[in-house]
Write a structure and sequence with these properties.
It is a single chain. This protein is α+β, with helices and mostly antiparallel strands. It has three domains: 6-93, Uridine Diphospho-n-acetylenolpyruvylglucosamine Reductase, domain 2 (2-Layer Sandwich); 97-215, Uridine Diphospho-n-acetylenolpyruvylglucosamine Reductase, domain 3, CATH 3.30.465.10; 219-408, Vanillyl-alcohol Oxidase, Chain A, domain 3 (3-Layer(aba) Sandwich). It is built from 15 helices and 20 strands. The strands form five sheets. Strands 15-12-14-13-18-19-17 form a seven-stranded antiparallel beta sheet, with helices on both faces. Helix 7 (230-242) packs across helix 9 (285-298) and helix 12 (349-362) packs antiparallel against helix 13 (389-408). The longest helix has 20 residues, at 389-408. The radius of gyration is 22 Å and the shape is globular. Bound molecules: flavin-adenine dinucleotide. Flavin-adenine dinucleotide binds next to strand 3, helix 4 and strand 10.
């Protein structure tokens, strides 16, 4: 249904408005939205200030026009896809680094700033923003806050939520709120900051954030370890984490993924399950490496090669960051169903990885598994032939079975990508009706007209009833 967005021209915005086809088409889906599920917004707005965001939201809510925040569009669950049309609110022009305060280990930023730009700006003060996702070179701080992203260093430093102190945000009615505090702790009132983080643009539009920073480590060691079996590798990672090895990054690639990385990135990874490691410390880093080695040896590690030169490690980390592309380009006849992102308690990590691989073998499917192993996070992709409905159905069933198993193991359907469209059907299975009912009540209280990013997170409209046509490939 087309919405009348002519009111936008009367709002006297500092930013731009477009109803042009190419702009609307470019905001019709995010990275995880299949071609046949893209929906064009009726208009794209590029706000340049909090006042712009407030004016657009107040006017859109008055007129019943949906508003979907959009940043870099690298989301993997269709979260920024404007499934009911209306306005795509593109925050990428609000990209200023407003105020760095090294003495407080803090920086204030606008939401559209790209993650790595924050790191570049504070590096000269010896600081960095630790929870950047693998996409941190091209995704924005606003998108990371909205999905509560995390990354390769989360095992040591935590997720984005752990590094946000305060948010300025605009509610659906246009009112501007400040959530959280610049003090590193506060017990004052409801914790609205935590409520907004991970809410995928369904409760408010973030217009400013105060981020916490960490000091760059004095000592860094990096390398890789090779295991005879995936079971050994997964068990070694879990043992290292529960034994308290102070590791900054611990990423697992199964044999299939190692082959894909070699084909795409030209690396020379052995044809075996491999763990990438990085250690950070201000002193005593080599003791930590030795501690990890001892644990890995007790799990039969075949090669433990930490202390590789920086250029070589840069190539390996780049290959790790490029795995999504490596999976996509592996076989021209196969397409990945959207990326799995299950996360389980670390003691169940080996179970969920083993289950995914067993399903792949039983059902004759290619299922590469990799991910932020130290967090219990498995990224898996099920590759299917899009022209073979039976193959697609078999793949979708395997995909869903892994999610269900992760939830049964006390884990979550999504460790970092969010629910968006693709994981809505697992929300009740994971949290139960009563909890999802409380989430719906929050949504109704803050956005009674369902203006902000409608159709996301919940398996039905906030008013009730399944919404037709709002599916991603992950839906069944
Ligand atoms: C190659 C690749 C690697 C990736 N690796 C990781 C990874 O390691 N870890 C990880 O967590 N994710 C990863 N992702 C997923 C994605 O990059 C993250 O979810 C990222 O945080 C999204 O940021 P974005 O700027 O692209 O946001 P978008 O995709 O544009 O939007 C994401 C969500 O945020 C909302 N939003 C955006 N800006 C605002 C705002 N200002 N206020 C309120 N809501 C807003 C949107 O409505 C949408 O719901 C990866 C993606 C790719 C393509």
């Amino acid at each position: 249904m087309a919405h009348d967005v002519s009111f936008l021209r009367d709002l006297d915005l500092a930013g731009d408005v477009s109803t042009g086809d190419s702009h609307r088409e470019s905001r019709a889906g995010d990275w995880g939205t299949p071609a046949d599920r893209r929906v064009r917004p009726d208009a794209v707005v590029w706000p340049e200030s909090t006042a712009d965001v407030s004016a657009v939201l107040a006017a859109a809510t008055d007129r019943g026009v949906p508003v979907t925040p959009y940043a870099a569009g690298t989301g993997l669950e269709g979260s920024a896809t404007p499934v009911r049309g209306g306005i795509s609110l593109d925050t990428t022009r609000m990209d200023a680094i407003l105020d760095a305060r090294p003495a407080d280990l803090q920086v204030d930023v606008e939401p559209g700033v790209v993650g790595s730009a924050v790191d570049e700006a504070v590096a000269r003060c010896g600081l960095f923003f630790p929870p950047l996702p693998s996409s941190g070179d091209f995704s924005t701080i606003g998108g990371m806050i909205a999905t509560d992203a995390s990354g390769m260093k989360t095992v040591k430093y935590g997720e984005v939520a752990d590094w946000v102190l305060q948010l300025e945000a605009v509610l659906a009615d246009g009112s501007v709120i400040t959530a959280g505090s610049k003090a590193v702790k506060t017990s004052s009132g409801y914790n609205l900051k935590e409520l907004l983080i991970g809410s995928e643009g369904t409760l408010a539009v973030v217009t400013r954030a105060t981020l916490r920073l960490a000091g760059l480590p004095e000592q860094v060691r990096a390398g890789r370890a090779v295991f005879p079996t995936l079971d050994d590798a997964a068990a070694a990672v879990a043992d290292a984490v529960t034994s308290g090895v102070d590791v900054a990054t611990i990423e697992l690639l199964d044999r299939t993924t190692a082959r894909m990385a070699n084909a795409y990135s030209g690396t020379d990874l052995p044809d075996a399950p491999t763990v990438f490691l990085e250690f950070h410390a201000d002193h005593g880093v080599d003791e930590e490496v030795a501690f990890c080695r001892a644990i890995f040896e007790s799990h039969g590690v075949e090669r433990f090669d930490v202390g590789r030169d920086e250029a070589e490690m840069d190539d390996l980390w780049q290959a790790r960051k490029d795995l999504a592309y490596a999976v996509d380009s592996w076989d021209p006849n196969l397409e990945p169903l959207h990326p799995g992102d299950v996360t389980v308690p670390i003691s169940r990590y080996a179970d969920v990885v083993r289950y995914a691989k067993e399903l792949a073998a039983e059902r004759d499917l290619v299922v590469p598994c990799f991910g932020h192993a130290g967090d219990g996070n498995v990224h898996y992709s099920v590759l299917v032939d899009p022209d073979d409905p039976e193959h697609v159905a078999r793949g979708e069933e395997a995909y869903a079975a892994v999610v269900r198993r992760a939830i049964d193991l006390g884990g979550t359907a999504t460790g970092e990508h969010g629910i968006g469209l693709g994981k809505r059907e697992y929300l009740v299975a994971e949290h139960g009706e009563a909890t999802v009912g409380a989430m719906r009540a929050v949504k109704r209280a803050l956005d009674p007209t369902d203006t902000l990013n409608p159709g996301k997170i919940f398996p039905e409209t906030v008013g009730g009833g399944r919404v037709r046509g709002e599916r991603t490939r992950g839906d069944r």
